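Box 3.1. Reading complex inputs
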Amino acid sequence: MSDHPTIDHDVLVIGAGGAGLRAAIEAASLGTRVGVVTKSLLGKAHTVMAEGGVAAAMGNVDDRDSWRVHFADTMRGGQYLNNWRMAELHAKEAPARVNELEKWGALFDRTKDGRILQRNFGGHRYPRLAHVGDRTGLEMIRTLQDHGIHEGIDVHMECTVVTLLHDGERIAGALAYDRERGRFKVFRAKAVVLATGGIGRAYSISSNSWEYTGDGHALAYLAGAALQDMEFVQFHPTGMIWPPSVRGILVTEGVRGEGGVLKNRDGRRFMFDNIPDNYKSQTADTEEEGWRYTQGDKDSRRPPELLTRDHVARMIVREVKEGRGSPHGGVFLDIAWIKDRVPNGAEHIKKKLPSMYHQFKQLANIDITKEPMEIGPTTHYVMGGIRVDGDTQMSTVPGLFACGECAAGLHGANRLGGNSLSDLLVFGKRAGEFAAEFARTNGDIRLDEREIDDGMQYALAPFDRGASGESAYQVQDALQTTMQDLVGIVRSQHEMEQALGELESLKQRADRVGVPGNREYNPGWHTALDLRHLLIVSEAIARSALERRESRGGHFRDDYPDKDPAFGSFNHVVRRGADGGMALERAPIPPLPAELAAIIEEMK
Amino acid sequence: MTAPSSTTTSHAVDAYTAAQQAQDAAVGHSSRTFRVWRGANGEGDFRDYTTEAMDGMVVLDALHQIQAEQAPDLALRWNCKAGKCGSCSAEINGKPKLMCMTRLDELPADEPVSVEPMRTFPHVRDLVTDVSWNFRVKPNITRFTPRAPDAPDGTWRVDQRDVDRVQEFRKCIECFLCQDVCHVLRDHHKHDEFIGPRFLVYAAALEMHPLDVADRTTQLKEAHGIGYCNITKCCTKVCPEGITITDNAIIPLKERVADQHFDPLRALVRLVRGKKKPG
């Protein structure tokens, strides 16, 4: 096969969102040679889209908050399928990680006494999200980027990984191509950190960019690692729906945190109609109490709009199903009403939610200070991912680490808003630290030239079929329709069996995809190579969801609408079987240590 | 090959997804022509593509549709499609804009929409340019350097007004449209001597950061060529985030540079006390 440059790093980080950058910074600070590979330009990753804030129990606004409450909230939100060790570490370490960002130049909004301000968010008992307006993600990724460029990290921009490489059982690096020229590059690394984000492009209604094709999930799976909890996909309740071209674009939960309410066609606040038992004691009885909560009254309880995302999304679908939806098939989200309750209401809304104001004005001709938004659920996040050790973030493959969205465990069956930004800081750091240690304590690796050749041959196959093969865009579109229609917010056995059948035929179609043109910056080629990853994660989602014959968190079954305690003691794990097919098993959740069990009991 | 529509009809979809799918047919459609720059490494020409546009579409939607239907190898950059990442910069009908935030109904309907790459950066392919120069410039600006923490726990106390003051600069999404339109870079190619409006905004964000104690005035004057800017305000006009680049960032920086370097009293103080930022 063709010649290729080989680039040596101790630690190779794949992905340059918040998790990848935080991992790279940590590994570099420990004296290892670090490379970062990113599909896009630096600073463009999906972290920029995070709006609401980063959850950390600093207690700056309400001193009743502590790591123990944050831990209990995270476990409750995740319906107790979480990796409890990760939930514990996350709650304990998040405040230090946020303060560290400030040391690196991040600027968060402040309390009256000059500390970092914290806001309310769904499922968090106390105001906990450090934020800056509604552009917290941009502040975080820019801070990590601007700090990282001075840390001696080699960044390979617009470079996409085709396959991970092995030295025996151990991970040894990655084969990649650069988008600009389409040339192959081989990265030899003693440890690899996957930080590739999510899988949102498997669905047609999605808040995710083209990058979110489950690369890390699929690369790890193909490299022999286990995936966990893949049935749990988060459908964010508030995405834009009108005009159709903006469908799926995220509307921050911060709108509800600032007092925004959900209404159906009849103007009714339907969220009061159905409050889950495990949140009853924490939810406001009246609209007035809910409003006071959003304005910082410590004696009030949260409005039902701030229940967990899985629940809010289902309630919206129910309104549409029962004929009470808004004109364009969603419901109304109204922040304009608070003008009657706060001085300078319109200015207040623009100040608290500047990018939402801009987004609706520009893309939908809606002035959110004057009229309600129309919204509906959008695929946003995957709780499932690469199965990792809670402390070290190492996967089941030696030398292969994962952090951020592509790793599983912290969020269980449903993620709380704000817990993803803290996740990527806490576990990005840990993954970087332990990957560096692994690289230091394990010897040199040898690359397997045949594995590299096979990878290159696979990557170039679509060109052999050229314009006579099927279009990658059509296969991707069909896959998104299958997943949206059959493995979406409301699931049932028959539909998921149908989906698995369609995925099988899509696999065959993907094998026949052809790409015209040459290797230089050819998005048709990139889309073709993404298909394998999308197909793997889609199958993992459908198989795991089919076996979970209950409803829990982000996973809702029409045919099993209730939670079943029998399904509360294990995680679904998939890995590649000896025959090349996908094998699913149940992995029991280890019992909680007495100290953590006592916290959960106390906070019930 | 199975057409996607036939797959769709055999699915029993949930009410919400069905309602959403129905909107695509409900919305108005019209045929639009796009004149897109195609080619590689600076060589190329415009090619026309006609596609069926839905009301509300942005330029990026139309180009994606053209990719899927007619030109699978049409090269372009994009990520968030919500004006937050600054990837999809291009020149639309000759004006530097984000493709994801430019609605078709803002553009004249009776003529083709022209889309071409940013002209200030080396061309790669179709709408993609080599913007790597920007990434090389940034590390040359002295990094954030905080004062000692205010509290024993290592944290700082900051007034919200001081946070608000620099928010404007920190909104920057690094789309590089300001760099594209700056004549010092575009026409005079002073890339080696001038960092451009984006990085003057970056320097301003650091200089006015409430915790930062570094002094960047000397490098702004000597290495970063702030003097080249003659305040034509082209950058401000194209900023998709509405940052008042010249008035709020560049002019105050120019004043700091002037104060530091041309005020003899300050120069003396600086000599005696070592570097210390003004204000």
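In summary: Chain A has a mean pLDDT of 96.
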